[in-house]
Design brief:
mainly alpha; two-stranded antiparallel sheet
């Protein structure tokens, strides 16, 4: 009897490996999109403790190196660590203020790193518990969180477009015109091109914008010549970690916030790539986040989280391969080990990044709107959940100093619109759809015992 040929099972887009040239181009595109955010927190903390230039460079290099390793683990997966989706990792902004407070209160960087190590290990331990909460993230919650992520990031893009916060030429019409030109270039490539050009639209827009910025005097590559060729620092370069209880508590709170944000990013990228995650895979992603944070404390870096801007890039370009983002992780490792390479990327003008970011962050927000279309808004409870969560989440976005007089432990959660809105959405979903609700019990004619009929899943369509 003749054997029938088996039809090969097509690979899911998440698992596809593009050709090498496209892999490198798409990977570099992700690095360019997140680079400014990746070095921002090391700069803030380093300046707060008055590090000399050499140590400041080592702090930045260490952050890039750990972010690259964390990205590789998240995308490729190592045993039960990594969600195996296209997620970029970087330093969480939620940690910036607490780390500055710890470092300047007398403990210095050793106290920061001691707290980071303990908080990372604690987060590894609680990741399975956090992963079991997936049923409390219906579309009404995930859609709201994704929408908040996009909207909360938009002020960052606008500040970049104006020249970067604190820059002498902030708001200069030339900066805004340069950013607008990059936005138009990205949109034009999305409209008139296809294939590689369309998918690399953000990278090509940034390259074109940088080339235009050079003759305008808006791009400065002088730092490239001053950068060292090799810049890896030994573990615990700033001294043996110290373990102060108050610092550890503050950093544990930061990790809970970071895990909430990462959960939103994982669910967002799962929605975009059409590869749903279950509790086990969510746990694996959170465990990678936590383990890389513990590693960061040893390697002179800071707490890690998934970067939402890269989720937007996945949605905008349609490149869903996790191997592309794994390539980005490899590029970050190179940038961390060879400062001269990082200096080239760092020379990209802020308005150029801002022009691209406006589209990318808007794409994240649009993804949240798409998820919310699955929600039954005939149920007034869902309207209240979305309305209140957006309102509370946008308070620190609209007025960044609103919570400045609150205790430090509260500021950690409330100062981030993403965190405040996410917690609000989770709590309101519990209040309106879980607490006090009992399943309807009816008798089935074909069975001798009553049967529990579950109510409609909270926050979904009927």
């Amino acid at each position: 009897m003749a054997r029938t040929a088996r039809t090969p099972v097509p690979r899911h887009p998440v698992d596809e490996v593009p050709p090498t040239r496209q892999l490198l181009a798409f990977g570099l595109q992700h690095v360019v999109a997140m680079y400014a955010g990746a070095i921002a927190v090391p700069l803030i903390v380093g300046q707060a403790v008055h590090l000399p230039p050499r140590d400041m460079a080592l702090l930045i290099n260490a952050g890039l190196l750990v972010s690259g390793i964390a990205t590789l683990v998240q995308c490729v997966g190592v045993w039960r660590f990594g969600v195996r989706l296209p997620l970029m990792q970087g330093v969480t902004f939620a940690a910036a203020s607490p780390m500055v407070a710890i470092a300047t209160a007398g403990g210095g960087l050793p106290a920061v790193y001691g707290a980071v190590i303990v908080a990372g290990l604690a987060a590894v331990a609680v990741a399975p518990l956090f992963g079991r909460l997936l049923r409390f993230f219906p579309p009404v919650v995930t859609g709201t969180i994704i929408l908040l992520i996009g909207v909360s990031l938009m002020p960052v893009a606008v500040r970049w477009a104006a020249g970067g916060a604190g820059s002498p030429g902030f708001g200069d019409p030339v900066n805004i015109a340069l950013a607008g030109g990059v936005t138009v270039a990205v949109l034009a490539l999305q409209r008139i091109s296809s294939g590689f050009l369309c998918r690399a639209s953000v990278l090509l827009g940034i390259v074109a914008g940088t080339l235009v910025a050079v003759p305008l005097g808006r791009a400065d590559f002088s730092g490239v010549a001053d950068a060292g060729w090799f810049g890896a620092a030994a573990p615990l370069h700033f001294g043996a970690p110290t373990f102060e209880p108050a610092a550890i508590v503050a950093m544990v709170v930061v990790m809970l916030v970071a895990m909430t944000e990462t959960t939103g990013d994982i669910l967002a990228v799962a929605e975009i790539t059409e590869r749903p995650v279950d509790s086990r895979r969510l746990t694996d992603g959170l465990r990678a986040d936590a383990a890389s944070t513990a590693l960061a404390g040893v390697c002179n870096a800071f707490p890690q989280t998934a970067f939402a801007q890269n989720v937007g890039l996945v949605g905008l370009t349609g490149v869903k391969s996790r191997w592309v983002v794994a390539c980005s992780g490899g590029i970050l490792v190179v940038l961390g080990l060879f400062p001269v390479a990082g200096a080239v990327v760092a020379a990209i003008p802020a308005p150029v990044l801002g022009g691209a970011a406006i589209v990318m962050f808007g794409t994240v927000a649009a993804g949240g709107v798409r998820t919310l279309t699955q929600v039954d808004f005939a149920d007034n409870a869902n309207t209240v959940i979305v309305a209140a969560s957006l309102g509370i989440g946008l308070i620190p976005v609209c007025v960044p100093t609103f919570y400045d007089r609150f205790p430090d432990w509260a500021v950690v959660v409330l100062h981030s619109g993403i965190s405040a809105g996410s917690v609000t959405a989770l709590v309101l979903n519990l209040v309106f759809h879980h607490l006090g609700r009992r399943p309807v019990v009816v008798a089935d004619a074909g069975t001798p015992h009553p049967v529990e009929v579950p109510t409609r899943p909270a926050g979904s369509t009927p």
